[in-house]
Specification:
- The protein has a 6-stranded parallel β-sheet, with helices on both faces.
- Helix 6 links the parallel strand 7 and strand 8.
- It has helices at about 1-10, 40-45, 65-70, 90, 115-135, 145-160, 175-185, 220-235, 235-245, 250-270, 310-335; strands spanning about 10-15, 15-20, 30, 55-60, 80-85, 95-100, 140, 170, 200, 205-210, 275-280, 290-295, 300-305.
- The protein has 11 helices and 13 strands.
- Helix content is about 45%, strand content about 20%.
- Helix 2 (about 40-45) packs across helix 10.
- The longest helix is centred in the C-terminal third of the chain and has 26 residues, at about 310-335.
- The N and C termini lie far apart (about 45 Å).
- It is an alpha/beta fold.
- It binds 1,4-dihydronicotinamide adenine dinucleotide.
- The site of 1,4-dihydronicotinamide adenine dinucleotide (NAI) has 33 residues, from helix 5.
- Keywords: Mitochondrion, NAD, Oxidoreductase, Transit peptide, Tricarboxylic acid cycle.
- It is an enzyme of class 1 (oxidoreductase).
- Belongs to the LDH/MDH superfamily. MDH type 1 family.
Amino acid sequence: STIQASLRQGRAQVNGRSFSSGSAPHRKVAVLGAAGGIGQPLSLLMKLNPLVSQLSLYDIAGTPGVAADVSHINTRSEVTGYVGEDQLGKALEGCDIVIIPAGVPRKPGMTRDDLFNINAGIVKGLCTAIAKYCPNALVNMISNPVNSTVPIASEVFKKAGTYDEKRLFGVTTLDVVRAKTFYAGKANVNVSEVNVPVVGGHAGITILPLFSQATPTANLSDEVLTALTKRTQDGGTEVVEAKAGKGSATLSMAYAGALFADACLKGLNGVPDVVECSFVQSSITELPFFASKVRLGKNGVEEVLGLGALSDYEKQGLEALLPELKSSIEKGIKFANQ
Ligand code: NAI
């Protein structure tokens, strides 16, 4: 991979040219919830990213140990652990990117919306601090329900007068990662070459993979496409059930979160044509937030790309998801304003 190649060379690829680690731009990245199931492997993967110069690990407990451990890895970034609310400001000061996997995960039988009561408050508190200490940072929201936590963040930032819609992202990369893996299996193509956009939101039927746009192309039957769509939508639940009460996806999520943060860093550094799917403020449907392909740049979102041509099955899926996504967005906005 490019990360491994860069690490071997001790160099970072920026703008198509390579810089020695010393001359790559300074970038501070914070992980909030860094001692958790996602937080720990995500912190590890961010420590391996040569585009990061300062890695700030925050949690309400456990971060000194995680930070001491990760800090011994001989890569570019300096690692600091922060624990407890008193240290949140220091953790955030000067951040370019804040990644948020803080909050409770699902147990079998739970929907992502069942997490709302606990996670909404956690996200509100963390975003209030972001508005104060690093109002210009790109925020990568992982905490569920993403369909509601992103609107909560936007309202908190609006109230603080710091909202910039180009800088707020719901991380839906795991849906893309799953769609690629499952598609490659059925289409019998090299998984590393697969591209599949996933649009809508990040819960159940709001997750809409667009297999009609998947590349390399394959002639899959309607039955197979339906099964692939359902498996992508239920991928999180598949993991929750297999873990049988011990949480939800953490390792694949850490991978996906690291991939998305890397894309954000490349965008900030001026690398051209960085495109990822993300749940962002959007005008491509009647809803205020929607996941679609997004071009990333020096200020975050450079362009929200359209949906492209949909199959009849995908058009039905789009119609079906809008009411649920709308109510999840409204629930978040209402919570933030109460
Ligand atoms: P976990 O329970 O293992 O870790 C959560 C961490 O957050 C804990 O270390 C906890 O101490 C910390 N935390 C709690 N309150 C905090 C606060 N106020 N400030 C900072 N840290 C705080 O949970 P896990 O498995 O890491 O999941 C985290 C979140 O990510 C959940 O909401 C889960 O639903 C979500 N998730 C999102 C996915 C996505 O695709 N966007 C995929 C998988 C999980």
